[in-house]
């Protein structure tokens, strides 16, 4: 069996990127203005050095090598990769969105059998509700069970109370009363 050794250039790139994530770990939970200021102070110089290092390192690699392609890709999108430095509300990556989309990718093959375009739309709608409930810290099963139980008797002019960002379980509402 052939054992591949990691590329020293790739390891160096990951180490430099890791330093940026270390900063993010330290500033997590801070106010956006504080995050921006600390990123400007600590991350901006590291990111500038990373860009310079990538520009130099890619010249040493064969143009068709995957690592060289990845480096060119990063450089071609550098302004987008740097946006987070200037806005403390922006995350360093889009992992939150990626995690939210993962169930869609996993289920794609299963949804070929939704039965019709309308069936596909219904699946998309229910998944949107489930992911929104998760995003707001709710157990989707508990949320849907509660909302579907209450909706028929709930006043139509107050349906927004049942939306994931406004919802409180009926049990909590009864205890508060």
Automatic annotation (TrEMBL):
Top-rank taxon, per record: Bacteria
InterPro entries the UniProt entry points to: IS66_C, Transposase-related, Transposase_IS66_central
One family name in Pfam for this protein: DDE_Tnp_IS66_C
Start and end residues of each Transposase IS66 C-terminal domain: 128-165
Domain Transposase IS66 central: 3-121
Protein name: Transposase
Originating species: Agrobacterium rosae
């Amino acid at each position: 069996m052939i054992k591949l050794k990691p590329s020293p250039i790739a390891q160096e790139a990951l180490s430099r990127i890791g330093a940026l994530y270390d900063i993010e770990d330290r500033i997590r939970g801070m106010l956006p203005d504080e995050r921006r200021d600390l990123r400007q102070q600590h991350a901006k110089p590291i990111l500038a050095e990373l860009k310079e290092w990538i520009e130099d390192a890619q010249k040493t690699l064969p143009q068709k090598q995957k690592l060289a392609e990845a480096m060119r890709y990063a450089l071609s999108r550098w302004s987008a990769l740097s946006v987070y430095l200037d806005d403390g509300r922006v995350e360093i990556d889009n992992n939150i969105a990626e995690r939210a989309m993962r169930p869609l990718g996993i289920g794609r093959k299963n949804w070929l059998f939704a039965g019709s375009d309308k069936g596909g739309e219904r699946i998309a709608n229910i998944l949107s509700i489930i992911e929104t409930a998760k995003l707001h810290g709710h157990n989707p099963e508990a949320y849907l069970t509660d909302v579907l139980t209450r909706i028929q008797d709930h006043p139509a002019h107050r349906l927004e109370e049942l939306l994931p960002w406004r919802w409180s379980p009926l049990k909590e509402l009864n205890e508060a009363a």
